[in-house]
Write a structure and sequence with these properties.
This protein is α+β, with helices and mostly antiparallel strands and 186 residues long. The chain folds into two domains: 73 residues, no CATH class; 96 residues, 2-Layer Sandwich (Tetrahydropterin Synthase, Chain A). The chain contains five helices and nine strands, in the order H-E-E-E-E-E-H-E-E-E-H-H-H-E. Strands 1, 2, 3, 4, 5, 6, 7, 8 and 9 form a nine-stranded mixed beta sheet that branches. The longest helix has 20 residues. The chain starts with a helix and ends in a 6-residue tail after the last strand.
């Protein structure tokens, strides 16, 4: 009995996981690649995003005998948001569900103005951000959106659109999370 347990422990090894979106080397410790399917990996992107505290959640799957990690969530750390906050500014938050080409996602934008603004202007900024993000999501896949969020393209374009209403100190997508991915008949 003890010999069988020793053999099971000896079979554990490090397995390479490919994450095509990030380009970082990831290794997971387990008994076999099949045992690591479905595991969630939390990857800190703070260094690669030059100080912006963000985390990418990846789920592993087995593709052609190799472990591949696909993104399921992108979140900006609360400490980064708190560090950006100042006195005499207004912040705008929202949360909504959007359908992309291949999945449903939750999006939570976070906007920080340079000065205090009225409720009407806050509402106008919130509505404009929601319209921009929903129009962007309907024409792209979730994988494309994850890539654009990591490279800061979505945030930059949204900031340029909203700047016409009021100049913003910070324009972020605080949370971008997959809710469900429809099962295809393949």
């Amino acid at each position: 009995m003890a010999e069988q347990q020793m053999k099971k422990r000896d079979m554990r090894a490090f397995y390479d996981v490919k994450a095509p979106m990030t380009g970082t080397k990831i290794q997971l410790y387990g008994q076999s690649p099949e045992a690591l399917v479905g595991k969630v990996i939390k990857l800190d992107l703070t260094r690669s995003l030059r100080g912006k505290g963000a985390e990418l959640h990846l789920r592993t799957s087995l593709v052609d005998g190799e472990l591949v990690a696909h993104p399921i969530a992108f979140e900006v750390f609360g400490s980064y948001i708190r560090r950006s906050m100042r006195n005499n500014v207004s912040y705008i938050e929202d949360s909504f569900v959007v359908q992309t080409k291949d999945a449903s996602v939750i999006i939570k934008p976070f906007l920080l103005t340079r000065r205090k603004v009225s409720r009407a202007l806050k509402n106008a900024l919130r509505v404009a951000a929601k319209e921009y993000l929903t129009s962007l999501c309907t024409i792209r896949t979730s994988q494309d959106l994850f890539t654009d969020l990591i490279s800061n393209k979505v945030q930059k374009e949204m900031s340029l659109k909203l700047k016409k209403l009021y100049p913003l100190a910070l324009c972020e997508v605080r949370v971008f999370k997959l809710i469900e991915k429809p099962v295809t008949g393949n």
